[in-house]
Amino acid sequence: MKKIIIAVVALLVLVGGGIGAYFFVFSDKEDEKPTPPQLFEYEVGKSMTYLASDKNAKNKKQIYVQFTPVIFYRDEETLEILTEKKTLIAGEIEKYFNTKTLSQVQKMRGVNVEGDKDRIEIQLEEKIKELMGEMGVNINRVSLLGFVIN
Fold it and tell me: For the chain, what is the largest distance between any 2 Cα atoms, rounded to a whole number of angstroms?
């Protein structure tokens, strides 16, 4: 009778150890999360454009803003379209600033609105998404590096 009890206890220990080992080894695979697609960046190039000192200013060449727009995207096919439309994108960004006064830019720049973006970056992102949307380009973000008002 002692041998049967020892055999049953040994069998329970082996089965319990096997089940424990199974959950230990295979539980890590269920917790793995898919990696997000890689984020690429496209530098449009250094830009400079003039701002009006106020709405009534006749000469916009009083104050200028200098910056480097960078477009972030997720798929490699977008690079070809961005390169092809680089001049158009730069022109749209310049046109955006030409409609702004110094006080408007100062109020919008650096104000953290969403995801570490300020109001200017959000508006430029919308403008570029609208421009590129017809071509099937998926823009993730637009940032302005080296932003200087002089």
Answer: 108
3-state secondary structure of 48: strand
For the segment 59-87, what is each residue's pLDDT rounded down to a tens digit?
555 788 899 999 998 887 888 888 888 99
Rounded to whole angstroms, how far apart are CA atoms 102 and 67?
Answer: 15
Domain, as residue range, for 140: 40-149
Q: What is the pLDDT of residues 12-54, one digit of tens each?
A: 777 777 777 777 766 655 556 777 678 899 999 898 888 876 6
Same domain (yes/no): 60, 7? no
Question: 83 CB contacts (<8 Å, ≥6 apart)?
Answer: 42
* Total number of domains in the chain: 2
CA distance 72 to 79: 10
12 and 80 assigned to the same domain: no
% helix, strand, coil for the chain, step of 5: 50, 25, 25
| Secondary structure letter of residue 54 according to DSSP | S
Tell me the C-alpha distance between 112 and 104, whole Å. 15
